[in-house]
Design brief:
Blueprint: E1 4-10, E2 14-19, H1 20-28, H2 30-33, H3 55-73, H4 77-89, H5 97-110, H6 126-136, H7 138-144, H8 148-158, H9 166-177, H10 179-188, H11 194-212, H12 220-227, H13 231-242, H14 250-263, H15 273-281, E3 283-289, E4 292-298, H16 302-320, H17 323-341, H18 343-346, H19 350-364, H20 369-372, H21 377-386, H22 388-408, E5 413-415, H23 420-430, H24 435-451, H25 453-477, H26 482-496, E6 503-507, E7 517-519, E8 527-528, H27 534-545, E9 549-554, H28 562-586, H29 592-598
Parallel strand pairs: 4-7
Antiparallel strand pairs: 1-2, 3-4, 5-9, 6-9, 7-8
């Protein structure tokens, strides 16, 4: 359908083909080239040393896979009719299906440009942090030069995490407001319709916003355009969006194949490109309504689909939610929080001040092509190593420990539990609960935390107060020696003084359970795979029992004393349990969903 001019060798997918326009765009666009220096898995390479692959090759992989999906879709009469209707609506029917594919491939290429350094490590947090600090500190606002328009966009991102992920919202800001990026697209991709690209990427986000009636000044023009679309246009855009973002899409398939390859984390069952091709070959389309199409799969692909689910569980379990990966992601968030909170004292350090300013401008969509190349994982490491002594002096001992952890992998922190058995035993000893009971109570809370970072701040504030109480009670209950008594009292004072690195709560929100529908040749009625597959059910059960949250203790403060560790293990879990219940009571009226789930 397209004329390709260049091949890129990829160890995961084989040869990735690009058109002449795409090559010019990739080579000439700083926003794409920047992705070469943003690791796909953040700081996971500190656990899996070969996990150094980047968002750049992932984006190329998504372009490759979304093309395969589109070609398979066009073999189905339903999809051909839907896409043809879209061409008619756009007055582009003479261009043919290749026109839609061109825009779809560019949407895939651009889908991750909004990621901060360290990818998901800062997801759904940094814009909230910037807004909170800028609004409360006029001096900070002047240092990073945030005007009212930029602040409005930052605030809209921070308040819209229920409808989209932060990197998706930033991608939207870049595509809508960035002058340099718009100029590059016009010059290198003259046949691309940027509105169509945005519709492909964000049609579900737009629909969510329209459904809840939210007023977003930054999106008003696009929302007005989407309001005018008829059902056929919406159906086509949702179908195209599903090829990039759905239960089984080009994005998800590529990061699974790529992450498995570069971490070597496949356990028992792996998924290969052959499995993916088998799944795609058995794709079916079912029209659920006048504006929605369901993607299902022939039952012949069931073994490959089950393998996909098991492999995805292994990735989430052993990579994304590995206790050390979770710790490093938590520490990098804490480091940025410290840097922003202390920026007035660091303002004389040009690289630090500029880095924070660039983060704000990036989120608003106004960063220049020159400056966007400075927003990489390596940029932070450069300024930390360049200004190491000066930054540590301002951030104090807590900041120094964080910096040493992410730069040198110094192991200050020990998790209360690492694996499932330890998780289960720790809970039983402290609260009498099973892992399943505990996870069922905190599931909605973790979701809320990821959508509203203020909830995390509330939880931590309550947790540390509860922890001090539990530690003091423990001194009365347990017959401790004088050394242990002094150490526990020292920990209490440290926590009371606001040191949040003595005991750390780390978590990540991931849900590997996905809704996949299959159809049999005889019936044709779509059935959810999890309802008929014992393998899928067992994966779901295993996930529901696995730890989603970790508690880490700074052993340098207690010299890894086993007696103190035992006291801390019990006290931290009791404090967390009590803090969750307190938070539920606080939000029982404002967030009934949380209350009903956690009570």
């Amino acid at each position: 359908m397209l004329r390709y001019s260049k091949q890129v060798r990829d160890p995961v997918l084989g040869w990735i083909w690009l058109t002449e326009d795409e090559v010019r765009f990739v080579d000439g666009c700083a926003f794409i080239q920047r992705l070469r220096y943003v690791n796909q898995l953040g700081l996971a390479h500190l656990v899996y040393p070969t996990a150094r692959h980047t968002r750049f090759e992932h984006s190329l992989g998504v372009v490759h896979l979304v093309t395969k999906i589109f070609q398979v879709l066009l073999e189905r009469d339903v999809a051909r009719r839907i896409v043809q209707d879209l061409l008619d609506e756009l007055n582009m029917k003479d261009q043919g299906f290749s026109y839609i594919l061109q825009n779809l491939r560019i949407a895939a290429l651009l889908h991750d440009i909004g990621h901060y350094p360290f990818s998901h490590s800062l997801e759904n947090y940094l814009s909230y942090l910037l807004v909170r600090e800028v609004e409360s500190r006029e001096e900070l606002r002047e240092i990073i030069n945030i005007d009212d328009e930029k602040l409005v966009r930052l605030r809209e991102i921070a308040l819209s995490l229920y409808v989209a992920k932060e990197h998706e919202l930033i991608t939207y800001m870049l595509l809508t407001y960035n002058i340099d990026l718009s100029k590059t697209i016009r010059e290198k991709l003259p046949n691309i319709d940027i509105n169509l690209v945005k519709d492909i990427l964000f049609i579900k986000v737009f629909n969510k916003i329209l459904k809840i009636g939210a007023v977003l000044e930054s999106m008003k023009n696009d929302l007005q355009r989407v309001r005018q679309y008829d059902k056929n246009t919406l159906k086509a855009l949702k179908l195209l969006n599903s090829s990039i973002s759905s239960t089984l899409d080009a994005d998800r398939v590529d990061y699974m194949l790529r992450d498995l390859y570069f971490t070597g984390a496949s356990v028992s069952t792996n998924i290969t490109l052959g499995d993916v091709e088998r799944i795609l070959a058995n794709m079916r389309l079912i029209e659920k309504s006048s504006d929605e199409v369901l993607i299902a799969f022939n039952e012949k692909a069931r073994p490959s689909l089950e393998g996909f689910i098991i492999a995805r569980y292994n990735l989430y379990k052993w990579v994304y939610l590995h206790h050390k990966v979770t710790l490093m992601s938590t520490l990098i968030r804490m480091l940025y929080s410290l840097l922003i909170r202390k920026l007035e004292e660091l303002a004389q350090l040009d690289l630090v001040r500029q880095h924070i300013r660039d983060l704000a401008y990036f989120a608003c969509g106004t960063i220049s092509s020159r400056d966007v190349l400075k927003l990489t994982d390596y940029s932070l490491f450069t300024l930390l190593s360049t200004y190491y002594e000066d930054i540590c002096k301002v951030l104090g001992e807590a900041g120094k420990k964080i910096i040493d952890s992410v730069l040198l992998r110094v192991s200050y922190y020990r998790p209360v539990w690492k694996r499932d058995v330890e998780f289960e035993n720790s809970l039983k000893n402290a609260t009498g609960e099973t892992a399943l009971q505990f996870n069922q109570r905190i599931g909605a809370l973790i979701y809320e935390i990821c959508k509203n970072p203020e909830v995390l701040e509330e939880l931590l504030s309550i947790f540390y107060k509860r922890l001090i109480t539990e530690l003091k009670i423990s001194l009365e209950i347990y017959g401790v020696d004088e050394d242990t008594f002094r150490t526990v009292e020292k920990l209490c004072r440290s926590i009371e003084e606001g040191n949040r690195t003595t005991v750390i709560i780390g978590f990540a929100y991931f849900e590997p359970d996905i809704d996949i529908y299959i159809v049999s040749r005889e019936d044709g009625t779509p059935i959810e795979l999890k309802n008929i597959s014992p393998l899928t059910s067992s994966v779901r059960d295993a996930w529901e029992r696995s730890p989603k949250i970790f508690i880490y203790i700074d052993t340098s403060e207690i010299s890894n004393n086993n007696k103190i560790m035992k006291i801390l293990q019990t006290c931290t879990i009791k404090a967390l349990d009590a803090a969750i219940k307190d938070l539920v009571n606080i939000h029982s009226n404002a967030s009934p969903c949380i209350h009903q789930t956690l009570q």
